[in-house]
Amino acid sequence: MPVTIPSGATQETFKALGNTPYVEVGYGIENIFKVLRVDAFHRLTYLDEGARKFGVKVSVQFKL
After folding, report:
1. Residues sharing a CB contact under 8 Å with residue 32, sequence separation 6 or more, in sequence order
2. How many Cα atoms are found within 13 Å in the side-chain-facing hemisphere of 26?
3. Along the 64 residues of the chain, how does pLDDT read in single tens digits?
4. How far apart are CA 45 and CA 23, in angstroms?
5. CA distances from 44 to 7, 22, 28 (A)
6. Which pTM was predicted?
């Protein structure tokens, strides 16, 4: 990965996690109106890294 982007700004790079394992919990509800699915995710470790601690994903699924 390049350290700078074309505009000259510094780009964040990947970094290794410490000795603590990364832990995330996810759960969802499926088959809402037979096409929707809602998932929620909670980050449990590495909360001080500046990433989001909670997220929601809504998806549409078609089953034949």
Report:
1. 38
2. 9
3. 667 778 888 877 777 788 889 899 999 998 888 899 999 999 999 888 778 899 999 999 887 7
4. 6
5. 35, 8, 17
6. 0.65
